[in-house]
Amino acid sequence: MPDPTAGVGIELSDVTKRYPGQEHGAVEDFSLRVEPGELLMFVGPSGCGKTTTMKMINRIIEPTSGSITIDGEDVLSLDPNELRRHIGYVIQQIGLFPHMTIAENIATVPKLLGWSKARVADRVDELLRTVALDPGVFAHRYPKQLSGGQQQRVGVARALAADPPVMLMDEPFGATDPITRLRLQEEFRRLQADIGKTIIFVTHDFDEAVRLGDRIAVLSERSRIEQCDTPANILADPANEYVAGFIGRGAGLMRLALIPIGEVPLEAPDDSSAALGVQDSLRDALDLLVLTGGQRVNVTDESGSVAGSLTHAGISAALGAPRLPTGTAP
Fold this sequence. Notes:
Blueprint: E1 10-17, E2 27-34, E3 39-43, H1 50-57, E4 65-70, E5 73-74, H2 80-84, E6 87-91, H3 102-106, H4 108-112, H5 117-130, H6 135-138, H7 148-160, E7 166-170, H8 178-195, E8 198-203, H9 206-212, E9 215-220, E10 224-229, H10 231-236, H11 241-247, H12 251-258, E11 275-277, H13 282-292, E12 296-300, E13 306-311, H14 312-320
Parallel strand pairs: 3-8, 3-9, 6-7, 7-8, 11-12
Antiparallel strand pairs: 1-2, 1-4, 4-5, 9-10, 12-13
């Protein structure tokens, strides 16, 4: 398997899955490349084949035809169990072993790989801290003693335990309440910025795809790719009516959430205005303008000094500006 310390590419070429007795395949002629270190979101309605497509990568489901490679290596030539030990897998149901402690759950794959006890213990502590769970508090608890959000974080930690180059995530936050889900998304976005894994993430929630993904593959029946591009480009220019309908209303607000204030021109400051930082988004600025009823919001730079201000007109103008870089469609 590839070096786990480096991002690796995944390539699917003409991948098809047909079940006996079905007129059409569950997945037909699916081709896509995931770049090293990229977080690619699969978005589509229930039954479109997005989970089936993802599961063929780690051979939980065997493809009928086509090829799948990771870092140029044909996964169909590998022992399936050995393959899965080098691919992190996180599912909505989490799948923690109820009779094992949290530390034992996280240590499952490293132990199978023959890691020493000391190395396993160090890795468990490291990962619990990475997902914001104190090892001294949580390592020796059992899954039933954790909240749903805490269990989901342990599921992510377990998938990362052997430092796999690839992670597959199947609606991992779908079973949590909206507040917990948002927090998990923010934690995962922070985590991915640090670890840079190559990740395929299945979701039916377009807001989640926009919030997390480097690119989004919008899938329709039998995993047909309707559009694959950056969130900003899909929101600004849907490829067809299907994609536009999947996005739904609020595309402008979702686009604003992707644009940092620091990327747009500022006007002269107003001493009486509320302030945001250049790292905040245009959506944050619009929220503040609506809440305060003000005409403009001040913007502070990294040093805390007021760098300028932003008005409703400035926010609207930013939506009309070209967004780069353009993602690569399959």
